[in-house]
Every structure is written in structure tokens, then in C-alpha cells.
From TrEMBL:
The keyword Transport applies. Transmembrane segments: none annotated. Residues 5-230 form the ABC transporter domain. This is Putative ABC transporter ATP-binding protein.
Length: 309
């Protein structure tokens, strides 16, 4: 049941707009992958091409080695939620899923199982029109799971959800990945993704900016070490001797760049200099993400201004 998503030089042009620009990456099974980028970066367009809803201008998007429209019984391979509001408000949750199942040749028992999996059994016979956004999101995921697919693709699933809803999505996606499925979800916010995803694919202006793990992203942007000692005059030359750049804060603490906390602690101990505080400081993931996508956002603001004139 293991299926990978593969993009090869995927490109989509809408008139003068290059929405997706030679995008190549792989999304592996068994982990949750976040597809990140500012609004307008090309995430939805890319997902729509993966799901055969838009035709690429060039390049290809493959799922389990095939383009979506060449997969037989696609719901058994790929489950997607592009719009949580897709269900008819007059239908009950059960009827909505039962119709979806019938039109895709899926046994009715799967409806009950899917409702149970997303925790909607008690409201199965209530109309969707009265559902909260969180409940609609769960229903969308139940629909995506009907065919027991190996690949799950969700566009902005946590957008607008409350804390409990986000927590539910997190644990559900982690569980689905742990079963060996390929799970891809998009978001324009790093903060929403940090605790949910293992890997991140970051795009801007339709191009791939980063393909990395959340852990690597954190490690790479460890910035400096804040050091508190009553004997700064002795520690400063010692740290500089180790190659560190050292500055002082207004509070009299030292900020060292270029050496890690362990090396500072060891050197201070060897020189019998007391240390009262030693704090490695890293940029938040949101800072790092904003820094990476800054240019893409500026570009976007500039083109929007042009469009408005
Ligand atoms: P995201 O999902 O990252 O917010 P989109 O894929 O929706 O980004 O949009 C990428 C770019 O393509 C944007 O500049 C957007 O205005 C443009 N775009 C998206 N869909 C269409 C369309 N159907 N026609 C013309 N331009 C489009």
C-alpha cells in the first residue's frame, strides 16, 4: 500500500502568471509532510494538478508512479480534502458519505468505519449545514478515508480551526502516517505546522525554496548563546580566543556567536570562571520561515499593487 508522490518539473501557467515553476520533489510514505508557502505561492494549484483537477502546462505529478487520471479506482489510492465546505448542507453526514461510497463502488460498511474513525458517529444523522468548521473538516477527512487510500492530500486543513480541532488533526494525521500512508498537507503558516509535520517542502513564487525536516530547520538556525557570568572581563578574551564574536547586552550578559554552549561551559570550567547562565537561542521556526519566503511575499505585494492600479 506504500505510495509516493513525485513531481517532475511540474509547471502551470495561467496567462502571464507562472503559478507553478518547474517544481520537483518527492513525498514519502510513513511521515507527515507539510507543503508550505505564502498565499499565492502555488500550493493549491500544485495539489490540484496532483489530483488531476488541473492539467500541467508541462512536467508531471505522479502518485504511485502514475498520473492521477491513469489510476484505476482512484479513491482507493488517494484521498483528498481541498475544500472542507464541499458537502451539501441539506444532507446528513451519513448520506453524504454513503453517496460518495456508492458512486465510487465502495462498500457501505466503510461509511460507518470512516465516521467512527473521525469521531462523528454520534452526529452521523445530523445535517451537515449545522456542522461547525471542525466537524466539516472531520467529515472531509472521513470522505478521504472511505477507500482506505495509501495517499492523503489536504489543502489548508487547520485554517480557521480552534485549538481542539488542530490537536485532533495533528494526532489523526500522525496516526495515518504511522500506518504507512503518505500524508501531505498545505499551510501558509509555519506555526501551525511545527508540531504536526516531520518534513517541510517550502515554496515561493511557484518554486521550491526548501526540502528539509523540521528538526534540521531548527538546528540550522540556532543563532547565538547568551552567557551570564560575574567575571565577564575574564570570559570575553577566552571566548574571543576560541573564535567567537562576543557582544554585551544592556543587562551585562554576553552574547556569543560562533561557539556552542557546551564549548563555552567547558572552557569556563577549565579556567575556573563561574557561569550563572548559559542559554542557546534559536530563531523561531516562524522567523526562519518568514525569512525564507520574504522575497516571495514582497514580490507578491508588488504584483498585487500593480494589479490594483
Ligand atoms: P496558494 O494555494 O499557495 O495560495 P495558488 O495556487 O492558489 O496559491 O495560486 C498561485 C498563483 O496562481 C497566484 O498568483 C494565483 O493568483 C494564480 N492562480 C491560481 N488559480 C488561478 C486561475 N484559475 N486562473 C488564473 N490565475 C490563477
Amino acid at each position: 500500500m506504500r505510495h509516493m508522490i513525485e513531481l517532475r518539473e511540474l509547471t502551470k501557467r495561467y496567462g502571464p502568471t507562472l503559478a507553478v515553476d518547474r517544481l520537483s520533489f518527492e513525498v514519502q510514505p510513513g511521515v507527515v509532510t507539510g507543503f508550505l508557502g505564502p498565499n499565492g505561492a502555488g500550493k493549491s494549484t500544485t495539489m490540484r494538478m496532483m489530483l488531476g483537477l488541473h492539467r500541467p502546462t508541462s512536467g508531471e505529478a505522479l502518485i504511485g508512479g502514475r498520473p492521477y487520471d491513469r489510476i484505476r479506482r482512484p479513491l482507493h489510492h488517494v484521498g483528498a480534502v481541498l475544500d472542507a465546505d464541499a458537502a451539501h448542507p441539506g444532507r446528513t453526514a451519513f448520506t453524504h458519505l454513503a453517496c460518495l461510497a456508492r458512486s465510487n463502488g465502495i462498500a457501505r460498511v466503510r461509511v460507518t468505519e470512516a465516521l467512527d474513525r473521525v469521531g462523528l458517529t454520534s452526529v452521523a444523522h445530523k445535517r451537515v449545514g449545522g456542522f461547525s468548521l471542525g466537524m466539516k473538516q472531520r467529515l472531509g477527512i472521513a470522505g478521504a478515508l472511505l477507500g482506505d487510500p495509501a495517499v492523503i492530500v489536504l489543502d489548508e486543513p487547520v485554517n480557521g480551526l480552534d485549538a481542539a480541532g488542530i490537536r485532533w488533526i495533528r494526532s489523526t494525521l500522525r496516526a495515518l502516517a504511522a500506518e504507512g500512508r503518505t500524508v501531505l498537507l498545505s499551510s501558509h503558516l509555519m506555526s501551525e505546522m511545527a508540531l504536526t509535520v516531520d518534513r517541510v517542502l517550502i515554496i515561493g513564487k511557484g518554486r521550491l525554496i526548501e526540502d528539509t525536516s523540521v528538526a534540521e530547520m531548527r538546528a540550522r538556525f540556532e543563532r547565538d548563546v547568551l552567557v551570564r557570568t560575574p567575571r565577564t572581563d575574564e570570559l570575553v578574551p577566552l571566548l574571543r580566543g576560541m573564535g567567537a564574536a562576543v557582544t554585551r547586552t544592556d543587562e551585562g550578559d554576553l552574547v556569543a556567536v560562533g561557539v556552542d554552549a557546551a564549548a563555552i561551559g567547558d572552557a569556563a570550567a577549565a579556567a575556573a570562571i563561574p557561569i550563572h547562565g548559559l542559554t542557546p537561542r534559536s530563531a523561531t521556526l516562524e522567523d526562519v520561515y518568514l525569512q525564507m519566503t520574504d522575497e516571495a511575499v514582497e514580490y507578491r505585494a508588488a504584483t498585487m499593487e500593480k494589479e490594483l492600479v
